[in-house]
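Memo subject: From amino acid sequence to discrete backbone structure tokens
Keywords: amino acid chain, backbone geometry, structure tokens, three-dimensional fold.
Body of memo: The sequence and its backbone structure tokens, given next.
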Amino acid sequence: MCTGKCSRCIAITLYPLVVISIICNIVLFFPDGDVSYAKDGHITEEVKYMGGLIGGGILVLLPALYIHLTGKEGCCGNRCGMFLSIAFAAVGVAGGLYSIIVAVLGLQNGPLCKTVLVWTTPFKELTGDNNYLQNDKLWSLCTEPKNIVQFNLGLFGTLLATSCLQVILCAIQMINGLFGCLCGTCNKEAQIA
């Protein structure tokens, strides 16, 4: 496969992952579909880091756009374009890693929720057998918002999965860009001769 076609495939695959990351991050601001929690500041701290919006969103969208333009019509414009795609893909890797870190912290610390009368992160200090990820009986500690543990698990888990895919794809593009830079890009004139 031509390095340009590979770039185009990677970029097209990154677009839906970017959209999923952004949507997950935005939805995390509204537990139980209610805006009052965001207004009152009762949202999980890791949501405010905006790993899905900034990391898996903007920092991956910029490389995806450049990589897509680099691979336009199956070939790259020149070696310099492929070299720049390496730098842009590195930005995508950094964005994906940021999103992974935020998602892992969100899963590890658990949600901010109301326990009896106090808003707290009840699972933050729990380890071992008391880990809320392994013991779903602990989920009942959270009384408000409704189903906040499942809400956070689903969305942070989705962010983690999409971010891992983004890092893998951007790393592949770095290797692809290196080949395109060192070996040259394929174009129609070279294929005919």
